[in-house]
């Protein structure tokens, strides 16, 4: 055999073997726990080995042909038959309608002749004599071989009818396409077995390769491959979790490397009100550039997406805050991202409300004692850097208990709300008003550079309550205040010291007759009416 003939034969058998190897690896990586996946991967592998055996017969000396044919081609042939029958019984659903174990038994009964040959060395169906015919080394086909091919042709014809019937009665286009592909593959196998196998003369034309009926098996496996890629004959990673994908209450998007969305679940449709074609359709305009940069970088490096915060547009054209987590799946030869979306809009609203409650008085909406101390600490730190002097006011309502006792706590709450509003109206832009509890309020006065200016500011606040508060019951209530003042850093250099000094000054104002402003001085009361 010349080098050219060897190269030609290597190409004729090598190219199909490379495809079969790739297809077998691809199928095996999908879901090897699935029985149909294992059957198809095994078929690809067995036919690859059979082609390799035929190739070996062509390139090795002729005396090696008989054992290769018996142990390679014959044994692999019955294994291929058994695997094919098992796969078809499962695909058509027949195996579930028969008594348990019967379908598997009928599938692998064809292996018995092959095992008999392997154990005893006695040939049943396999040819054992070969002759050279131009480029090829060909077998002499014996009577048992032709009988086996006739029986095999009849069997695959039955399966062809079953596949065609199932395709005609399919309820959806995907199922119809899947079974039609398998049907035409099985028809090709039937014709090849009948014409190129059972009816094959012992001596064929010189250009025809040995075992020409094998083109039918190749056509069948191509049809299987087509149905896998086009119609998801086998469950890939997505198919394995299709129920979870569909039923989960969390929105899920499946997208390609360019951000094009190829599939969404029901929860995603509910959130967005449509089936978006791209991530750009759901991400708000101001986030799109950054979002695509992050997504494409993660996809190109196959980095899992974790806690990706985005703002998206929902079905009502409102902006929702979401967190996206994702990973990658393979469907056929394509890779997609699977993005799980969690809507955190309500969580953020609740978190904002809880944060507001933690730092604000629920009745008046003013900052509470906790926030007041934080702000006071910030003022102290800022003064250390910028000499930003300030004063602290402790404000207590005079005779508030009388109001509660006379008209009840509801009217008392109304009065507190009205006091908070007036204090807020009389403060300057940089001043802080806080309710620290009961009928006590506190303020931070900015720009308190001297005592006289601070007195005037505190007195202006006191004068703001000359007019009575009108309650909802129509009764006027005259509010008077006792105000204690401490100045930083004269009366204290920390929060506790300043609050304590302002508190003492406020009680001094009450002892002096109420409705007064008292500046803390340590010993001597400085009062302002």
From TrEMBL:
> Gene3D superfamilies from the entry?
3.30.70.270, PAS domain
Q: What range(s) does the GGDEF domain occupy?
A: 388-522
Q: NCBIfam families given for it?
A: GGDEF, sensory_box
Query: By its UniProt entry, which InterPro entries does this protein fall under?
Result: Biofilm_reg_signaling (IPR052155), GGDEF_dom (IPR000160), Nucleotide_cyclase (IPR029787), PAS (IPR000014), PAS-like_dom_sf (IPR035965), PAS_fold (IPR013767), Rev_trsase/Diguanyl_cyclase (IPR043128)
Q: Which domain of life is it from?
A: Bacteria
What's this protein's name? Answer: GGDEF domain-containing protein
Q: Which PROSITE patterns match?
A: GGDEF, PAS
Respond yes or no to whether keyword Plastid is given for this record.
no
Q: Name one GO biological process term.
A: regulation of DNA-templated transcription
Look up and give the organism this protein is from: Sulfobacillus benefaciens
> Where does the sequence pass through the membrane?
6-27, 39-61, 67-89, 101-125, 145-167, 179-199, 211-228
PANTHER family, per database record: BIOFILM ARCHITECTURE MAINTENANCE PROTEIN MBAA (PTHR44757:SF2), DIGUANYLATE CYCLASE DGCP (PTHR44757)
Q: Which CDD domains match?
A: GGDEF, PAS
In this protein, which residues make up the domain named PAS? 237-279
Which UniProt keywords are present, listed alphabetically? Membrane, Transmembrane, Transmembrane helix
């Amino acid at each position: 055999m010349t080098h050219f003939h060897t190269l030609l034969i290597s190409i004729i058998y090598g190219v199909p073997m490379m495809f079969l190897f790739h297809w077998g690896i691809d199928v095996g990586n999908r879901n090897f726990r699935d029985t149909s996946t294992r059957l198809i991967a095994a078929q690809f592998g067995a036919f690859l080995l059979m082609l390799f055996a035929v190739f070996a017969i062509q390139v090795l000396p002729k005396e090696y042909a008989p054992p290769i044919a018996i142990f390679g081609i014959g044994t692999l042939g019955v294994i291929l038959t058994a695997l094919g029958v098992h796969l078809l019984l499962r695909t058509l659903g027949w195996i579930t309608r028969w008594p348990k174990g019967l379908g598997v038994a009928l599938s692998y009964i064809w292996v018995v002749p092959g095992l008999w040959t392997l154990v005893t060395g006695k040939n049943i169906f396999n040819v054992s004599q070969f002759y050279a015919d131009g480029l090829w080394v060909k077998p002499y086909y014996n009577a048992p071989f032709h009988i086996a091919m006739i029986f095999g042709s009849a069997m695959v014809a039955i399966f062809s009818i079953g596949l065609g019937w199932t395709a005609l009665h399919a309820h959806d286009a995907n199922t119809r396409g899947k079974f039609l592909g398998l049907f035409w593959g099985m028809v090709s196998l039937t014709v090849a077995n009948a014409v190129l196998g059972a009816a094959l003369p012992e001596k064929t034309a010189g250009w025809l390769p040995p075992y020409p009926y094998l083109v039918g098996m190749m056509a069948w496996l191509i049809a299987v491959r087509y149905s896998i890629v086009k119609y998801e004959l086998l469950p890939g990673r997505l198919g394995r979790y299709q129920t979870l994908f569909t039923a989960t209450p969390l929105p899920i998007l499946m997208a390609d490397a360019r951000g094009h969305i190829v599939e969404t679940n029901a929860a995603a449709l509910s959130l967005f009100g449509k089936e978006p074609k791209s991530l750009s359709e759901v991400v708000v305009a101001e986030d799109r550039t950054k979002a695509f940069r992050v997504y494409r970088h993660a996809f190109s490096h196959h980095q899992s997406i974790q806690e990706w915060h985005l703002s998206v547009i929902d079905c009502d054209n409102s902006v929702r805050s979401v967190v996206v987590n994702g990973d990658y799946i393979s469907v056929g030869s394509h890779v997609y991202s699977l993005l799980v979306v969690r809507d955190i809009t309500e969580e953020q609203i609740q978190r904002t409300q809880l944060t507001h409650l933690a730092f604000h008085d629920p009745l008046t909406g003013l900052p509470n004692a906790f926030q007041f101390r934080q702000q006071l600490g910030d003022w102290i730190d800022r003064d250390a850097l910028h000499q930003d002097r300030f004063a602290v006011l402790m404000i207590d309502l005079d005779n508030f208990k009388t109001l509660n006792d006379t008209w009840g706590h509801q009217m008392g709450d109304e009065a507190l709300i009205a006091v908070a509003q007036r204090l807020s109206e009389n403060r300057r832009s940089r001043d802080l008003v806080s309710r620290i509890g009961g009928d006590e309020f506190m303020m931070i006065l900015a720009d308190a550079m001297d005592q006289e200016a601070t007195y005037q500011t505190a007195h202006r606040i006191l004068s703001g309550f000359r007019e009575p508060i009108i309650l909802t019951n129509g009764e006027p209530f005259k509010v008077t205040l006792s105000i204690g003042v401490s100045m930083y850093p004269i009366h204290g250099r920390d929060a506790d010291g300043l609050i304590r000094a302002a508190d003492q000054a406020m009680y001094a104002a009450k002892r002096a007759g109420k409705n007064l402003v008292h500046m803390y001085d340590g010993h001597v009361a400085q009062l302002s009416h």
